[in-house]
């Protein structure tokens, strides 16, 4: 078992990033014109990295499986992006953002990376405003902020419930500028199938044109993977249906260590599962917890009556409602971190207080907010004694202005008006904190292969605070990677073009074709979705919100058996050399079947509860996560093995010199 070198700079925490930028090597503008960089994934991390690298003068190739970078899953982010601007004057600072993020991640993240994230966060807002991102503003014209879970300040910048979309359009416009200049060559509807190593360095990729089926070789001096997370290993998640782990996993197969796969975030505010017909779940933004109050009936008989359709939630008085987050966590109330809120909802539903037909839903209620906002609006409009009807009307208008598109989306899916009756929500798989292991420079264990955004593990620890995903993606792409990759590329100014007719490219392409042919050779008994759904049920039932040693061992055995059956009996129609959506899915599910077993192994070996990883054997008498800092204060980085349960563990020990490590409390 080896120790990993994270290459964290020496010196005081607040000076590390500035000093590091002063110390690393640079590439002069004339030489940048001779250096090629591949960026896989064009969401916020990949799009911002590609645009910035091209602006600096590098020749960039971008790859995405969507028909346009505008369709990256980043577009689905709703609630906002964090930055320590302290516009509200409520005591925020770089240190406070750093502290909240490390604490929110249950003290399982790297101090230096998180502080750098906080340090550059303010620059992101300035960059995006300059691009024209329409952040919400206060009456006086200043940018508005709202609060998110796990913090006691308002630091989340937002654009209604469409923040991800607006930020992605900003990055996309920056990319388009470079495409028009000829500095970015954009390969849409292309999927990376393998990473090519030459003399141990990442020197290109093998990609498939998803329209023609053609296998292509693309060379570069460095490869950046910004392909998002692996939440779809659960089949049902809030991720886009196409989201997958292929790019990261193929790099893992070539030698990039995979870190903390068991750290997966279950988001507390999603529209509940309605039946086996579903292929994905819909997120309701965490921003709704600013004004929505979460509750279940106090009496089990009321919950049963609601499930049976004999009562409506509006029939219950305040005294008959259990606002359980406010009761259990008075300091933070409905704005506890996502992992805490999710487990609390599961506990209430498991106890028999769930409110939908399956018993797996709680209420998110805006009646108090509508009344509060209505009174305030009436008062500021000069109506000192408004009627109840006027208060409700004005309050709905305020709520609609803040959350209207989210309410509209909920009503279209559920066919209930959330202004009149509380929303029903339940936790669902949302974000993955694990990913490719990277050092301080965002470089994986393969020289020249970098990972940015959700594809790496670096900044969130065991749980991500809301509105921090967009912050990390844009921080990596705009303000970190463009500096650190130059230090590596400075050694390539005399290398010249990387040829694609080398033995290494020949072998990589052969490996890809052989793997695809093997997929086509299945007996054809079952569809790809058949296996994906089976894997998802194993993952959710035994590796979901709560885990235990017995079920994790069962999960490893069942996934290994399912994987063997998949390769023997999967049905992939069509041909290799043509458009073939089932072949695309088959390749992705094959990787999920390996990842799923490693996920279970990682959870099995971590004998503690922390953040999104909750082991039932390790909890406090109050049911909270019980960490073991003495034995598990490390990053688990796994070396690839064809048999995932035989993967070799490498550890990066975590040290905390600027934060006191203590039991997380939001009470």
Summarize the structure in words.
One of its GO terms (biological process) is anaerobic respiration. Keywords: Cell membrane, Electron transport, FAD, Flavoprotein, Membrane, Oxidoreductase, Transport. Pfam families: FAD_binding_2, Succ_DH_flav_C. Helices cover 39% and strands 14% of the residues. By secondary structure, the protein is α+β, with helices and mostly antiparallel strands. The chain folds into 3 domains: 21-264 and 430-492, FAD/NAD(P)-binding domain (3-Layer(bba) Sandwich), CATH 3.50.50; 267-428, Flavocytochrome C3, Chain A, domain 1 (Alpha-Beta Complex); 506-628, Fumarate reductase/succinate dehydrogenase flavoprotein-like, C-terminal domain (Methane Monooxygenase Hydroxylase, Chain G, domain 1). Helix 4 packs across helix 5 (111-131), helix 5 (111-131) packs across helix 13 (469-489) and helix 15 (528-543) runs antiparallel to helix 16 (549-569). The two termini are 39 Å apart.
Counting DSSP H or I runs of 4 or more residues, the number of helices is 18
The CATH topology annotation of the largest domain reads as: FAD/NAD(P)-binding domain
The CATH first-level class of the largest domain comes to Alpha Beta
Question: Uncertain spans, ≥5 residues at pLDDT below 50?
Answer: none
Secondary structural class: alpha+beta
Shape: globular
Mean pLDDT across all amino acids:
96
Give the termini distance in whole angstroms: 39 Å
The tally of beta strands, per DSSP, is: 19
